[in-house]
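Worked example 2:
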Amino acid sequence: MSTNAATVEELRWKKFPVLDNGFVCLVDVMGDDAAVVQAARVSYGQGTRSVSDDRALIRYLMRHRHTTPFEMAEVKFLVRVPMDCWRQWIRHRTASVNEMSTRYSIAIDAAQTTKPDQWRRQAAANRQGSEGSLDSETGRWLTAEEAELQQQARRVYQRRIEAGVAREQARKDLPLSTYTEAYWKIDLHNLLHFLELRMDVHAQWEIRQYARTIGEQIVQPLFPLIWEAFLDYRVEALVLTRLERGVIARLAAAGNLPADEAQFLAAQDPAWAGLPHSRERDECREKLLRLGLMRE
């Protein structure tokens, strides 16, 4: 048995827990690092070469965003995920999906719960994000209310089923915290795109846990060379826009590297100047801090 085949057999149907009642597991996979390399070399009529040659080619493909070779590999998962998190997940429309239907089956008797120290505050500058946590006292009554609400919703649902109400109607008041299950099959290129977006610190915390588990526990061992390149050139990479390059050039010309806040604001793009709030300016500042071109 090849190394990759042994890895697949070790991972297949192994449930990696996520959140309090969710999981992800590998169902099947087509392809590996060598399959992507082989697809890239098809015009030469050659198979794979040495591992070092394969690594260099994979890194070139990832660095220059050649996508088609990565589409030659596919991965199928079984996932259990809260419905509100699944709504974000399913927006990635390049996958084949078969979700459990509560028209035909009884809904899963599990809902995601929130610990008292896990309630997050709404971000002040980002309408779709969160920052910081609520105090422990508030968290305790929020968690107690959550448990009461989920239990009541389940009791109502179960009574409807027992009374003979159609499953398609009985389900309508189940909370979005209810878990669902689905088969999710996707090619490697689009899977990496999903992971790049959903592993990002700006993604919702819950879906980040799923993305990290898929990436680190399943994709990494199946595609080690591709995963290495993905981290180097996508996850840990930093893209500079034309406006941001202009800021750096002006700071360098003035001899103000690393810059302080006043110097940064003096060198900012004219389009940002005078704006009380600018997300683009904030993103530029964050990148300069990461690069060591600004002082804290």
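The longest helix spans residues 136-162. The mean pLDDT is 93.
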